[in-house]
């Protein structure tokens, strides 16, 4: 999975998988508790606002979205659905896969790169 490819020098794939799983568990709880805000952009991209760098583990918003939709808690998935409802649109998985992202909490959106 692409989430596992952002390894540190000398970090094994197994170590990265463990790191990602731990980070997703923490981020899932933060999203479920509404400590982290989810925002859906006008093109259907998604961003997570308020994740401390120490908890992010070099994971992109796209990776976090994929992991939560695949194995997240019901509360975190409800937070994603709430963000879609507030935005008036669903997350567009194609746009997420293309790498559209935001570095400023969803004020501006950028293509991959």
How is this structure best described in words?
It is a single chain. The protein has 113 residues and is mostly helical. The chain has one domain (2-98). The protein is 49% helix and 7% strand. It contains 5 helices and 2 strands. It has helices at 13-32, 53-56, 61-71, 74-87, 93-98; strands spanning 37-40, 46-49. Strand 1 (37-40) and strand 2 form a beta hairpin.
Care to give the gist of this entry?
With 113 residues, this protein is mainly alpha-helical.
Brief descriptors of the model:
two-stranded antiparallel sheet, 49% helix, 5 helices, 113 residues, mainly alpha
Strand order of the largest sheet: 1-2
How many strands appear in the DSSP assignment?
A: 2
The helical percent reads: 40-55%
Stretches where pLDDT falls below 50 for ≥5 residues? none
Number of DSSP helical runs: 5
Largest sheet: 2 strands, antiparallel
Portion of residues in beta strands equals 5-15%
| Cα distance spanning the termini | 19 Å
Order of helices and strands: HEEHHHH
Number of domains: 1
Structural class: mainly alpha
Gyration radius (Cα, Å) is 13 Å
Chain-averaged pLDDT: 91
Task: Describe the secondary-structure layout.
Elements: H1 13-32, E1 37-40, E2 46-49, H2 53-56, H3 61-71, H4 74-87, H5 93-98
Antiparallel strand pairs: 1-2
Helix pairs in contact: 1-4
């Amino acid at each position: 999975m692409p989430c596992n490819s952002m390894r540190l020098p000398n970090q094994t794939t197994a170590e990265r998988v463990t790191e990602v799983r731990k980070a997703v568990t923490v981020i899932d709880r933060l999203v479920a508790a509404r400590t982290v805000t989810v925002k859906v952009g006008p093109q259907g991209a998604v961003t997570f606002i308020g994740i401390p760098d120490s908890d992010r583990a070099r994971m992109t918003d796209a990776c976090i979205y994929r992991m939560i939709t695949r194995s997240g808690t019901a509360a975190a998935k409800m937070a994603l659905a709430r963000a879609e409802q507030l935005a008036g649109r669903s997350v567009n998985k194609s746009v997420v896969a293309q790498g559209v992202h935001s570095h400023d909490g969803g004020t501006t959106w950028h293509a991959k790169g």
